[in-house]
């Protein structure tokens, strides 16, 4: 080694001799961020443009219950009531069960048992909402009809019950995550003092997991508020039903309307582009966005851990209490599993058509004959195209949140992404209808559907990727930077390989969710019959898809052939979504292995 | 202080602080080319922070005040910090290996910083492994995963990774404190072998180690910073 | 702002692979897809007309014509979509109204009559068995305004009434409203009654009737075939028999239309010619409607 080298005269690693930084990295990141912001603006813009297209009398809108478009009377209190009631019913049922099940899953059952059970709950979360709609028609309507003595069974209660089943997996999954984040040392310290398991959970674990478990409830609420399709099929869609306080309870057993089911009906198509009807519907959409956005934002707000509210003192029956609590929690785990098993049995017995290969390989004939080959191809096309758009968008946004943004921007972006992910898909569908189908003149187009599904999947990808980047130990970033890598090189050489399993998992989870979506496609992308399986153009190029097929057939549930075809197509849809989830398993395993 | 100082590192009343309080300094010292200087102090005294300030790797919220010149440049003004960092290799407390083989890791910095034919880069990586005293142990397993190496081997691999860039300054941040006694000895031997051939700034809480390895000492616990400064310059 | 928003969501870079992928899958799948919209005939609207259109489309599909059939929003939805240029042929179970024409002044709505149907006042069999066989206009008004709680009020059995009304825009509902409130009259707001719900297409209406004791709904009489649990009430003493529908003595009889923008041409003409042909007309009785020949005889 010569002294020349020692004096820092080693050939300066200059700009000319340096390999080029991957230029696509900043481009992708900026692009992902900008496009996602625009996707948000697209939704807001649709609502604002609608509000500007006619007059809205907010005072009347928010104080009257009569909605009568032919007479230009627009009041939403009945819909707000309906939305509130079904959400409250859903949460009242799902929260106690969900919390207890989560506690049992994480604190009580041996991991050998808990792991498959948890997968079962996650599977329940991946069941497309249209399948829950079928369950509603097949089981919940008759149940409410018999038990509540309600003719037909269409009622707020039926909608609430369906929603309870739908939000339960969300609450369990997020609560388990919150419990998993409590360090074992807290449990150990409490147990070492001689506390029973119930006391450990109550005094040491729950106070720490509390904020996360409350966030789970709010996320469940956001899902309940935004759900359209399953509710649409069992609520009766009757306008103007705002009961007086005396009959509030009995009104649960009669039909009603929610904000989402109003938007899911035919009125957005009938209202046209201008006029007070369109403006009033946009006001409904705005209220819906505010409700869902509020719940999502509240769930992401950091709230501190609270100590147990009432300091429990040892009672005489502490051991008996411990046993009771354990038994109750175990029972709570059984409930979601029974639901899963019940849905599986229903699907297999009613949808036995799907067991025959010809059902997969033949085109549909007439209203309910033949198979669903065209629908399978259409859904596959939508999902693949959505995946191609989602991958760069989600990665870019994830990098922006996980790496590039400063702490404050990062928080804002994270919340915004969470909110975008929570936008009710019916609003996405209507915004897509107004923009792609009408303004751009695409009519029904598979690409419009795929882009809307990409908006559904992108937040999932971005948030999983960002969360994974968070886990990367800072020493890795520092070691790479200390070797003189530029930021783009750091992203390319360290962050991307680290984030790859999360990216893949997020993509598959997001697409599994998108594959089951009905509401964004109804107005924008699909027709019931006659579309070519794989269209070549973009404009006026509709496809058929599984969820919208099931939705159309489900309305003809009195015809046994139609119902059988609906269940068959529903089973095919669940299988496809399940395959996407299954494909994510190896990537997830890798992720937990290297975490 | 002038930017054209002949010293590799020239700190003049260097202060690292948050918005609220001073973490380190004021501190004045020089590191002259070809010397090994020790930076000593109890844990929590900000030794690692000083090293990171030299190459602009301070955590968000920390700022540098006073004069600081590294390799003839002020880190605060260096157009591209990545160029400065490529010439001032930093090796951290516990070994950080990237996913990939031993050779991948030795090439990790080179590949990104130097544009040259692959064979040429490989030769430099091999030389670096030799200089870090690791070559004999890994020559037959260059393509096996780096994560399979022992902790002492991994730390020397990190050293080699930095040496491969032929740095004009080597910053070692407690390179042996996370290691077991056996590994500590081999890593220390590697560092000792660099003495006189490389310019090294070694951070350690271990006074004996510094005495064994270094030509001069800067003691952060020493209130009289000017003494420490002259000590470093004396060599 | 809205415009740029969406353009940007689908950058050319993302579009290209989409298209490439489509090309390859289309080729690999071997589906001879017809590309441009010129050879694709888009039909949407009434669920009443839908069975006829679907069968006709099925029959013509062999001849290289691609026909998509959808029922989003019923007759009103079809008319709106035709007005917006999103479809080529609208199916309608009601005549085009002045309000429809006013909403899309540039569109030359052209009606092609293909047959005749009747809106039946459909009830559960037990209502008829209980002694109620006919209703008059004022009784119908009372029923659909939610003012009748029990069938015994109308002379029927002691059974609670449950009303299913069609959602706005459905041809069935407009025919009923026109009968009850006159051509320019407006139906009152939906009643605040717990025994009242909204339904959409004919299939959904039938489903709900079948699952609800004591229910009543306006429904195309053709959808009663093979449903022993359901029955028709006579309106002003007249049942919707083919003869009564043909001579319009049944008050709620209605024409079935295909609507086009201007006189039908191209694929639309091929399609309509088929429906009007002898073969195509046979599809109407198959689904319970009257043919044009039956009307004029």
Q: Largest sheet of chain B, described in full?
A: 5 strands, parallel
CATH class of the largest domain in chain C: Alpha Beta
- Binned strand content of chain C: 15-25%
Helix content of chain C: 25-40%
DSSP summary: helix tally of chain B: 9
Major sheet attributes of chain C? 10 strands, mixed
Write down the overall mean pLDDT of chain B.
82
Query: What oligomerization state is this entry in?
Result: heterotrimer
What topology, given as strand order, has the largest sheet of chain B? 5-6-7-3-8
CATH architecture of the largest domain in chain C: 3-Layer(aba) Sandwich
Q: How much is the radius of gyration of chain C in Å?
A: 22 Å
The percentage helix of chain B is 25-40%
Mean pLDDT over all positions of chain C:
82
Largest interface: A-C, 92 and 88 residues
Q: Termini of chain C, distance in Å? A: 59 Å
Q: How many structural domains can be distinguished in the coordinates of chain C?
A: 2
Q: Gap between N and C termini of chain B, in Å?
A: 19 Å
Outline the low-pLDDT stretches of chain B: 223-235
Cα radius of gyration of chain B in angstroms: 17 Å
Give the name of the CATH superfamily of the largest domain in chain C.
Answer: Periplasmic binding protein-like II
Short summary:
In chain A, β1 (67-68) and β2 form a beta hairpin. With 595 residues, chain A is mostly helical. Helices cover 71% and strands 1% of the residues of chain A.
Give a verbal description of the structure.
The complex is a heterotrimer of chains A (595), B (235) and C (297). Chain A is an all-alpha fold. Helices cover 71% and strands 1% of the residues of chain A. Chain A has a two-stranded antiparallel ribbon with strand order 1-2. In chain A, strand 3 and strand 4 form a beta hairpin. In chain A, helix 2 crosses helix 18 and helix 17 packs antiparallel against helix 19. The radius of gyration of chain A is 26 Å and the shape is globular. The C terminus of chain B is likely disordered. With 235 residues, chain B is α/β, with parallel strands linked by helices. Helix content of chain B is 38%, strand content 21%. In chain B, the strands form two sheets. In chain B, strands 5-6-7-3-8 form a five-stranded parallel β-sheet, with helices on both faces. Chain C is α/β, with parallel strands linked by helices and 297 residues long. Chain C has two domains: 117 residues, 3-Layer(aba) Sandwich (D-Maltodextrin-Binding Protein, domain 2), CATH 3.40.190; 129 residues, Periplasmic binding protein-like II (D-Maltodextrin-Binding Protein, domain 2, 3-Layer(aba) Sandwich), CATH 3.40.190. Chain C contains 14 helices and ten strands. In chain C, strands 1, 2, 3, 4, 5, 6, 7, 8, 9 and 10 form a ten-stranded mixed β-sheet that branches. In chain C, strand 6, helix 8 and strand 7 form a beta-alpha-beta unit. The longest helix of chain C is centred in the first third of the chain and has 18 residues. The N and C termini of chain C lie far apart (59 Å). The N terminus of chain C is likely disordered. The chains are: A mainly alpha (595), B alpha/beta (235), C alpha/beta (297). Chains in contact: A-B, A-C. Chains A and C meet through helix 2, strand 1, helix 6, helix 12 and helix 16 of A and helix 1, helix 2, strand 1, helix 3 and strand 2 of C.
């Amino acid at each position: 080694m010569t002294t020349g080298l020692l004096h820092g005269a080693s050939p300066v690693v200059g700009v000319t001799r340096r390999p080029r930084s991957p230029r696509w990295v900043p481009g992708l990141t900026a692009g992902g961020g900008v496009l996602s912001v625009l996707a948000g603006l697209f939704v807001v813009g649709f609502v604002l443009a609608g509000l500007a297209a006619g007059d809205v009398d907010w005072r009347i809108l928010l104080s009257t219950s009569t909605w009568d478009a032919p007479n230009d009377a627009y009041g939403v209190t009945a819909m707000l009531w309906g939305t509130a009631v079904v959400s409250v019913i859903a949460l009242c049922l799902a929260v106690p069960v969900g919390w207890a099940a989560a506690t049992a899953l994480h604190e009580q059952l041996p991991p050998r048992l808990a792991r498959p059970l948890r997968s079962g709950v996650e599977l329940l979360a991946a069941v497309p909402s249209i399948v829950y709609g079928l369950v509603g028609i097949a089981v919940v309507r008759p149940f409410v009809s018999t038990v509540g003595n309600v003719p037909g069974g269409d009622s707020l209660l039926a909608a609430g019950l369906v929603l309870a089943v739908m939000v339960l997996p969300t609450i369990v999954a997020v609560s388990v995550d919150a419990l998993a984040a409590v360090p074992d040392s807290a449990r150990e310290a409490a147990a070492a003092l001689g506390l029973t398991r119930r006391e450990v959970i109550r005094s040491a674990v729950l106070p720490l997991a509390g904020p996360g478990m409350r966030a789970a409830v709010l996320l469940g609420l956001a899902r309940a508020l935004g759900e359209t399709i399953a509710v649409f099929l069992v609520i009766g869609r009757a306008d103007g039903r705002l009961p007086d306080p005396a009959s509030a309870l009995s009104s649960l057993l009669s039909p009603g309307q929610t904000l989402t089911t109003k938007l899911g009906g035919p009125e957005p198509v009938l209202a046209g582009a201008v006029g007070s009807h369109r403006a009033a519907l946009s006001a409904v959409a705005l209220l819906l966005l505010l409700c869902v956005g509020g719940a999502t934002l509240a769930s992401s707000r950091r709230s501190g851990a609270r100590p147990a509210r009432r300091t429990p003192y040892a009672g005489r029956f502490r051991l008996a209490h411990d046993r009771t609590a354990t038994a109750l929690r175990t029972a709570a785990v059984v409930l979601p599993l029974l639901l899963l098993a019940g849905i599986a049995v229903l699907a297999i017995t009613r949808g036995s058509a799907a067991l025959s290969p010809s059902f997969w390989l033949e085109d549909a004939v007439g209203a309910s004959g033949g198979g669903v080959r065209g629908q399978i191809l259409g859904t596959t096309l939508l999902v693949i195209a959505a995946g191609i758009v989602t991958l760069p968008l989600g990665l870019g946004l994830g990098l922006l949140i996980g790496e590039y943004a400063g702490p404050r921007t990062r928080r804002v972006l994270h919340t915004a992404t969470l909110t975008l992910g929570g936008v009710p898909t019916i609003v996405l569908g209507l915004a897509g209808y107004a923009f792609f189908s009408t303004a751009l003149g695409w009519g029904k187009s598979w690409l419009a559907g795929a882009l809307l599904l990409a908006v559904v999947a992108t937040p999932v990808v971005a948030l999983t990727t960002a969360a994974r980047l968070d886990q990367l130990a800072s020493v890795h970033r520092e070691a790479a930077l200390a070797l003189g890598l530029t930021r783009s090189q750091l992203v390319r050489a360290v962050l991307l390989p680290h984030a790859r399993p999360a990216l893949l998992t997020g993509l598959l989870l997001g697409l599994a969710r998108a594959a089951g979506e009905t509401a964004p496609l109804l107005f924008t992308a699909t027709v019931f019959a006659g579309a070519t399986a794989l269209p070549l153009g973009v404009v006026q190029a509709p496809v058929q898809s599984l969820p919208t097929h099931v939705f159309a057939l489900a309305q003809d549930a009195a015809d046994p052939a139609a119902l059988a075809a609906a269940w068959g197509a529903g089973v095919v849809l669940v299988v496809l979504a399940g395959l996407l989830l299954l494909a994510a398993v190896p990537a997830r395993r890798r992720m937990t292995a290297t975490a | 202080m002038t930017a054209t100082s002949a010293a590799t590192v020239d700190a003049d009343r260097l202060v690292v602080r948050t918005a609220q309080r001073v973490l380190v300094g004021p501190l004045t010292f020089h590191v002259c080319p070809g010397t090994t200087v020790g930076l000593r102090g109890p844990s929590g005294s900000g030794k690692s922070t000083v090293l990171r300030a030299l190459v602009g790797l301070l955590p968000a919220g920390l700022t540098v005040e006073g004069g600081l010149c590294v390799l003839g440049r002020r880190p605060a003004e260096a157009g591209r910090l990545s160029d400065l960092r490529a010439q001032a290799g930093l090796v951290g407390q516990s070994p950080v290996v990237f996913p990939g083989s031993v050779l991948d890791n030795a090439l990790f910095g080179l590949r990104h910083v130097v544009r040259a034919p692959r064979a040429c880069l490989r030769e430099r990586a091999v030389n670096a492994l030799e200089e870090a005293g690791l070559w004999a142990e890994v020559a037959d397993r260059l393509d096996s995963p780096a994560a399979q190496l022992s902790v002492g081997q991994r730390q020397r691999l990190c050293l080699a990774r930095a040496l491969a860039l032929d740095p004009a300054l080597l910053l070692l941040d407690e390179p042996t404190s996370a290691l077991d006694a056996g590994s500590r000895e081999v890593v220390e031997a590697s560092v000792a072998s660099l003495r006189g051939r490389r310019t090294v700034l070694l951070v350690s809480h271990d006074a004996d180690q510094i005495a064994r390895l270094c030509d001069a000492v800067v003691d952060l616990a020493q209130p009289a910073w000017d003494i420490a400064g002259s000590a470093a310059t004396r060599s | 702002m809205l415009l740029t928003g969406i353009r940007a969501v689908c950058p050319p870079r993302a579009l290209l692979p989409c298209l490439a992928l489509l090309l390859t899958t289309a080729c690999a799948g071997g589906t001879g897809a017809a590309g441009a919209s010129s050879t694709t005939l888009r039909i949407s609207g009434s669920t009443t007309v839908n069975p006829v259109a679907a069968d006709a489309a099925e029959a013509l599909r062999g001849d290289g014509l691609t026909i998509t059939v959808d029922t989003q929003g019923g007759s009103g939805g079809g008319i709106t979509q035709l007005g917006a240029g999103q479809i080529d042929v609208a199916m309608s179970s009601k005549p085009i109204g002045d309000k429809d024409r006013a909403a899309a002044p540039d569109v030359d709505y052209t009606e092609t009559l293909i047959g005749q149907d009747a809106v039946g006042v459909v009830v559960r069999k037990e209502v008829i068995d209980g002694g109620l066989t006919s209703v008059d206009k004022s009784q119908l008004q009372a029923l659909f305004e939610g003012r009748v709680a029990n069938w015994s009020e109308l002379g029927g059995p002691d059974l609670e009434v449950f009303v299913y009304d069609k959602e706005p825009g459905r041809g069935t509902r407009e025919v009923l409203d026109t009968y009850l409130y006159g051509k320019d009259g407006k139906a009152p707001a939906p009643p605040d009654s717990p025994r009242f719900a909204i339904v959409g297409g004919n299939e959904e209406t039938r489903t709900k009737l079948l699952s609800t004791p004591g229910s009543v709904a306006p429904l195309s009489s053709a959808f009663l075939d093979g449903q022993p649990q359901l029955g028709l009430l006579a309106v002003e003493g007249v049942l919707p028999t083919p003869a009564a529908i043909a001579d319009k003595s049944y008050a709620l009889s209605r024409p079935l239309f295909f609507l086009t923008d201007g006189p039908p041409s191209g694929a639309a003409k091929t399609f309509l010619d088929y429906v009007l042909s002898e073969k195509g007309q046979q599809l109407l009785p198959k689904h319970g409607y009257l043919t044009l020949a039956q009307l004029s005889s």
